Amino acid sequence: MEGHHNVEDHHYFPMFQRAEPSLMQGVEIPDRDHRIIHDALGKLASATHKCLERLGRTEGVMTSDQRFALDELLALIKHTAPLLRQHLGDKEEIVIPLLLERVRSDPDFG
User: For the residues 47-67, what does the mean pLDDT come to?
Assistant: First the structure.
């Protein structure tokens, strides 16, 4: 995910903005989202790792520590999923239409 965001943030978005300044409005939202998503995915990865470590010690009934780990992981998933859905929706509604409009008017764009 980090590689994908780096390519967009440091290559595609700046190139699009230079070629078509009106794209700036459509790129600011996904760019800001990348930082938020990166942080959320880092927390999710850490919680997943901790949860798997705790569950690896399961012998029959889960302990309260293991249940807490699962609850924490579920809460982070519930927090992260809407961020990802919104981010992808923003790209579909904002960035992609602007890019399509530009490509239609200039087939050599990009």
Answer: 82
